[in-house]
Amino acid sequence: MNIEETELIFYYPVTYRMSKRQELLDMLSVYEYEFFSLEDEEKRQAYYGGHTISHQALQQFFYPFLEDKLFPEKPEHRSFSRFSKAFYENGVMDVRGKSVPFTLSSVDLTLAPFGLAFIAVRIVLHERTRLSDVLDFCHFFRVLVPHLDEEKGALYTYNGNSYSRVDHLLKTECYPFLEQFFVDYEKLGKHYSHMPFFEDERMFVSGFLRTEQGQQIDETMLFRLGQLNGTDEQNEPFISTSNPEYVKRYLEKHLLDRWAPHTYQITSNAAHMQITNQSKEDAEVRVCEFYSVGYYNVLIHFFYKIMLLKLSFEHSEIRWGKDKYVVDELIETITKFASRYYFDEVVVRTEGRETSNLLRQHFRIHEQYEEIRETLDELYRLQEDQEDERQSRFLFILTVYTVVSGIYGMNLIIEDWQGSIAWDKMAGYTVFEWIAWLLGITGILLSATIVGRSLYRGVTNFMEKKRREKWE
């Protein structure tokens, strides 16, 4: 089957250092990335492969409590500040003896809250591309760094240069300035990448496909779309199951057939694809929605997913018994995340809610949220119990000191401590006088240690809180 029109968006999450946010904003301006604002009507068709989106539709698609964060009037650290740049350069992917030409339309960099950012790469494949080749392109291009044999073998020629890795292509051609702002997780160990909670370093792909008008769209095709099953090593169409009943069960969970038999949506943890057999004119509205409300619907739910994975990774790296303030910070972070950004209902329109529900289900957003919330609550409770036990131990020791000192009354040698200490008299101390002397000295040292420890923790927590408030 030939696909008459293929519009693709690849989503790549990264973490950046919030302390260098202003420097990053300056670099975006230098490299001609422009801030996206709904007030700028001239940009309605600048980034979308010749299609024109509706800014008015964007304003009426999401609830107001989320809309003001998705579409800020100026770059703000609590909002999703999007910067876009048009490229419109042609390239070719060569794999298994065949070539798949493509056009890189534009790239977005959206600075999200909590140090997350999302790169969105818009790509258009040329007309009349075989369905299997479309799926092969999605399968290979979404892999930033190929590790498995099934991911290797693709060569990309773009702007006169050749690349065997997609991450090299994007870094070199689209955002050569960005890597210096990444958070360096590799210092935690050589097995960590710069995004240790980014699953397999594979981008999430969203696509809109238009077949020849009236072309039948069957269950096998929809399954292959959801699984991104292209071709095998012999370049024959490939499907990753041999059981028709499995295909039916899969589609029951992953398919939105509201507009059948002309248009279908299928969502998995790897892709969110829409396919239609309408005419070019009739499908234009759906393409524009794909680039506007559909884009932001995927973006906000992908943000939910990555943010929760980030929190899961951070609490897994806590040093037990030593990072209580980190636990406090994580609990504060998830509380702010839940109160400001995490909502069960984000879309006003019914069809948008159905897509939203599929994204939530296959990103496992609710399960991740409940898991991290319960884990952090339990971790906080255990840390509190441990801290209470430590404080009780100190109080017990101090109580012993107080009782023994009360028995002595500290009147045996207290006069020797007035003014300059009479060191020469210590040689004549009795056993009980030595006990009293040791009680006094160690009691003072213990009290100073407790006070110093409390002051250190108080100052540390205060500085951490100020730092978080500055950048969140």
UniProtKB/TrEMBL annotation:
The chain crosses the membrane at residues 102-125, 394-414, 434-456. It comes from the Bacteria. Keywords: Membrane, Transmembrane, Transmembrane helix. This is Group-specific protein. It comes from Caryophanon tenue. The lineage of its organism: Bacteria, Bacillati, Bacillota, Bacilli, Bacillales.
